[in-house]
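Q: What would this chain look like folded?
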Amino acid sequence: MIAGRMKKAFTRGTTFRPISKWNSRTAGALQVETRLAVGKLPGQLSSDPGTAPEQTDDLKRQILAAINDPQCNGNIYLVGGSAGGCLALWVALDPASTVTYWNETKRAHIKAVVSLSGPTDFCDTTADTNIPPAKLDLFYNNLDDYVGLPDGTKCIDDTAGLLERASPYWLVTNGATSNPPAIMLYATIGDHVPPSQAVHMLTALTGHYGTTGHDFQEWTMTYTYGSGYEHAFHYWHQINDATGSDEECVSEEVINFLESH
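A: My prediction, written as structure tokens:
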């Protein structure tokens, strides 16, 4: 489980704990921690920026630790909310050896990923009237912080391409694995991570990999801004009311999705 935010801690340790029995199989879960760009974790040096790719590298290290844990059967499933969804998508697609021992073989232990309101395309500035402008501005500023840019920096002004190159959307066609895991994307119409982020990611995945032999899904639900159910784990126990869904709770759908892979 990978929770947000890119700026503030919402993390726990890395100890395996059995969480439930699914079809008579015990699932072990760990909640991971990564360095932060603004607001440091205990032990994170003030001089440590915590910007990309430090957070995804930290997640890679913790996945490696999980793979080597004797309680793990080698299959890894990622569920990330908000910033955690972004980190999960990146790591699930990235075979680059940015940390020791990480490679395509290790990455391939990841069998399925669920992103709940995860940012995917940092250069997407699609206007969205369902979200207050101030919340949208805060979202874009968080992306700037994540890559170490001043608040208010747009991709057109980012001459180094830091925003684009930290986007899972960009990674799909720029070094991603040729064997992606199953991916499920969730969003809501009132999400302050605009739902266009999930739609763009689905388009990138299906456009690059196709649909045959792959399980890529995207669901945009109708929960509005201010409902209390519009973002990430806040809709975990709510009905997926997106068109074409099975109208189960998101939590049940996620479990069923992970079980199927």
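The longest strand covers residues 110-116.
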